[in-house]
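Milestone 3.1: sequence recovery, worked example.
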């Protein structure tokens, strides 16, 4: 195909696209893992896909920093209609949109009816014309993931091979045992010492298999994860994904109310 027609063809495919985006949650441990995730997002966007990234980490060294982007607003502010959805969007590269979502992730844990309805409207708007959602999942102090991340079709844990990253990843994997995913994908990103990192990761997989009921699969990139997510997604707008997010939000709100009594 001639170069002049490639962009037109990609645009036409997006216009006619009815399938919902594939949704992949990724927890990154270590600076190398964060840069790996940024590179994966950029690579897919540069390949002609429309990629939307939700960054649930608000502190320095987050995914936005790795992408060289800075958000003025949290997506929660757009959901609550304090700012427009476009104002909350950061263009991190051609075909790559970034939304800071740390406040939204916390708010969904206790979402009331109004917030849930407005989130649903925002979610449907963001799904249109998008190929892939990457949720940079950030566990809270109890190692629980947000309803948004927990509803993803696939879960990936990325480590940079350092002992601390491996330890933190194992703690999350143990917490995810019995959760929404029977299989967790593991990726090794930019280790300083390849041999040591490979040994630590192999031990993580071995211990994970012994101590949890999860299937742990080694992956080199997000291609296989996105393909599996596509198989799990619904048609038109992904009602299954949205129902899972809102269902988790309602259950956590009830739990919070019960604990407060």
């Amino acid at each position: 195909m001639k170069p002049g027609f490639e962009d037109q063809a990609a645009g036409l495919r997006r216009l006619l696209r009815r399938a919902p985006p594939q949704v992949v949650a990724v927890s990154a441990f270590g600076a190398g893992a964060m840069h790996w995730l940024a590179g994966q997002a950029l690579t897919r966007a540069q390949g002609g896909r429309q990629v939307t990234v939700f960054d649930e980490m608000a502190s320095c060294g987050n995914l936005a920093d790795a992408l060289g982007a800075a958000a003025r607003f949290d997506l929660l502010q757009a959901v609550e209609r304090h700012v427009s959805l476009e104002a909350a969007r950061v263009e991190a590269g051609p075909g790559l949109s970034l939304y800071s979502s740390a406040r939204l992730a916390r708010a969904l844990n206790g979402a009331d009816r109004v917030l849930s309805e407005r989130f649903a409207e925002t979610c449907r708007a963001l799904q249109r014309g998008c190929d892939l959602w990457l949720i940079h999942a950030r566990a809270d102090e109890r190692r629980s993931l947000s309803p948004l991340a927990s509803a993803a079709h696939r879960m990936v844990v990325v480590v940079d091979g350092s002992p601390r990253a491996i330890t933190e990843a194992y703690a999350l994997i143990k917490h995810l045992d019995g959760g929404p995913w029977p299989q967790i994908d593991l990726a090794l990103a930019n280790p300083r010492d390849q041999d040591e990192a490979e040994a630590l990761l192999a031990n993580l997989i071995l211990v994970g298999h012994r101590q949890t009921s999860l299937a742990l699969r080694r992956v080199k990139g997000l291609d296989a994860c996105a393909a599996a997510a596509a198989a799990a997604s619904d048609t038109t707008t992904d009602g299954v994904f949205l129902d899972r997010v809102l269902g988790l939000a309602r259950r956590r709100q009830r739990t919070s109310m019960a604990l407060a009594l």
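The beta strands are 22-29, 51-55, 90-93, 96-100, 132-136, 154-159, 183-188, 215-218. Residues 60 and 259 are 32 Å apart (CA to CA).
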